[in-house]
Amino acid sequence: MAGDFGAVLRRLREKAGLTQDELERRSGVSVSTIRGLETGKRSNPRMTTVQQLADALALRSEDHEELLGSAVPGRRGGGAGAAEAGAPEDGSVEAGAPEVGPARGGEAALAALGAPPVAPLGAPPLVPAVQAAPAEAAEQLAKAVAARWQREEEQRRIQDPYPLPVRWKPACGTLTDHWANIRRLPPGVPSGPLDLSGRLEDIAATYRSVPSGRLVVLGRSGSGKTVLTLRFVLDHLRSRTPAEPVPVIFSIGAWDPTAVTLRDWLAEQLTRDHPGTAAPGPGKVSLASALVDSGRVLPVLDGFDEMADGLRRPALEALNATTLPLVLTSRPAEYAAAVEETDVLTSAAPIELTDLTLDDLNHYLPRTTRKTDRSDPAAGAWQPVLEKLREPSPDGSPAPLATVLSTPLMVALARTVYSDTPGHDPAELLDTELFPGVKELEEHLLDNFLPTVYRRSRPGERGWDPERVERWLGHLARHLTELRTPDLAWWRLGHGLRSSTRTLVTALVTALVIGLVDGAMAAAFSGSPAGGVLDGTIVGLLAGLLFGLVHWFTYTVTGKDVQPSAVRLRIRGRPGTTTWRTGSRLVIGTLGGAFFGFAYGFVVGLLRALGRHAGAASALETGLIDAIVFGLVFGGAAGLSFCLLGLLETPLDIVSAVSPGSVLRAHRRTVLVQLCFWAPVFGAAVGLGAGVVVDLLQGHLGRLVTDPMASLMLGTISGLGGALGYTLTLTAWGQWCLLARIWLPLTGRLPWATAAFLDDAYQRGVLRQAGAVYQFRHARLQSRLAQGRRRR
CB of 289 within 8 A of CB of 295? Predict the structure, then answer.
């Protein structure tokens, strides 16, 4: 039986031209499970697994029936011994799941068709398959998180040549809750402090030693908090059991606790960085909300100190209002100030990162440089500098350079500027006349980081002018400072402009594009260039005004962002879990289309009547009649198009690799498919709808006349113009093209190849990736660049 199913599955997979890895990405079923099923090592496949594989293969009805029949013998022979509903593929019984007997032929057929299985009389109720979705989604999320941060660790060269020895000690008692709360002890039981000292490789074990599951990591600027969170996530995932939550890093500096609750914000961020979690889950909520609410996500909240001053107290109060296990990082001063205003983080054990020592530097820095003396492998550019730092100073205080190099951030900058760049001698850092204090040394390293990384280029790497790069990055740093967020999202680059400027640019460019398209097509249809110019001018100005108003009311007034969609468009093989929300789409599309059609019809009718020298009353009457006709035509066409568009939408995969570039490319593909779908459907609906509406209103509004050629022209122009207007004003990719690819480069604030520039900055280590967004490598670097931009 299992062999029959495996053979059928293998044949259908090869017929679809898919590898096992590709089938895993489409279906969410692991490669090991697929391989086990195809080889017969796994028996009794779950019906939910069979359905996932069938949906991913986009099978025809006969192939679909064959696959289900090979998994459920009762569908073909009606005999007993069908696969157990909900049983694991390896034949074992899942912990906590009721054991069920073999399904009879009719029950197996019902299960295969998607009907709920019938439990034997007196047996516990069977768990619906949808309730298992968060558990399966958590495993997929764990795989995606591990892959993402493993790549990020390699990109940041944390293991090259080895991680800096980040250490910590217990934080001071004023920042620590009662140990009885931390250890979750009942009243009256004696309690003492936990031993929380450790090193970077011990962070996962240290967290697990805290019974409350709440840990606060404190450290001064550049002390290695972000690297510690990255290592915690990877180590925790390596030893994680299925019962434990999945650690996910969130940049808490982007959270406004006065506007959105913690759980809602976590779900929003999870959807942004893992678009597949936007798929519907149990209880009519998204999978992201289900994962957060069910405790399957362990929030690693990085950057509490990066929140605005007035938001830290409400943020700490909101965290104390929950019992969620979490990890929180912050600089000590900002956390202490918030604690002073309210209270410590309840049940949280705080640790504080310690400084690097001269021994740490002596072991690390010489191994980052080229060997200059073959007779002495230990010799290098750093050796005399480190020897000088070990010499006692006259007043007994540490040398400024030793103080600067006590944090991993400054060590990394010094390595970039001196170890990785031939001809730069770190001995100049000992010059007290050039660098009399710690501040001057730190500013020197920060200011020389960009010229260093942009001075050298690998073969095939694009060269950039360092001065322009500093201006462009300064604009981005200033942009993030004004938005009070560390997240550099490509769909929000236009928010560095004033809202009025953003809306005006959107309206003008939309008017220009639609006017040119309309004018060219009107001239081609009518054979009159002058008529095409006039019609294009009218339609372009009107479309720009109306689409600009729609953009203003939809996003600017409400303060919302034009977010990239968390769906893709597929015609075949859509999963049955996709929901189609027709109500809101129908209302939005109909109202928007009717508003545009009413205004367009009124203006066109008014101008047409005035062109034949009709009186004011007659012109007004003609304008109102045309407004009603066009309002009904465009309203019905837009509502229908929006609803049909919803039929093609399907959620993204959770395991999809997400980066700023991949999100941009995926959203661009979705928008282009929408454009190709919207233009012919909307155009056909307008062209055909014009004749239908005229027939329905004939006699009610007087004698109405329609021309087939005019309807064809109206439909064609409306399809293209409506699709372009929707794309430019109401999609994230359209706004990216308008603002980040045209306006900001035109005004010198960004390069023309913005996406390539951001990716290159990431490759050079200036930016880092945090899911779907970029961030500056460190807040100090962002602050320094923003200050330089402000000075200029």
Answer: no
Q: Are 306 and 604 in contact (CB under 8 A)?
A: no
Distances (CA, A) of 56 to 60, 123, 471: 12, 33, 47
Dump the DSSP string for 149-214.
HHHHHHHTTTTSS-----EEEEPPGGG---HHHHTTPPTT---------EEGGGHHHHHHT-TT-E
The DSSP symbol for 571 reads S
Asked if 196 and 168 touch (Cβ cutoff 8 Å), the reply is: yes
List CB contacts of 590: < 8 A, sequence separation 6 or more: 635, 636, 638, 639
Contact 62, 68 (CB under 8 A): no
Q: Averaged over 546-563, what is the pLDDT? A: 80
d(CA 147, CA 169) in angstroms, rounded, equals 30
**Nearest Cα to 713, choosing from 548, 536, 593?**
536
697 three-state secondary structure: helix
d(CA 436, CA 285): 59
Cα–Cα distance, 608 to 161 (Å, whole number) = 76
How would you write 422-454 as a 3-class SS string?
Answer: CCCCHHHHHCCCCCCCHHHHHHHHHHHHHHHHH
pTM of the model: 0.73
State the burial class of residue 103 (Cβ atoms within 10 Å of its Cβ: 0-12, 13-18, 19+): buried
Query: Which of 198, 140, 134 lies closest to 349 in space, CA to CA?
Result: 198
How confident is the model over 68-109, as pLDDT tens digits? 777 755 444 333 333 333 334 443 333 333 333 333 333 333
Q: What is the DSSP letter of 380?
A: -
Tell me the mean pLDDT in the region 625-632.
82
Place of tokens 């570039």: 661
| Angstrom distance (rounded) from CA 130 to CA 298 | 22
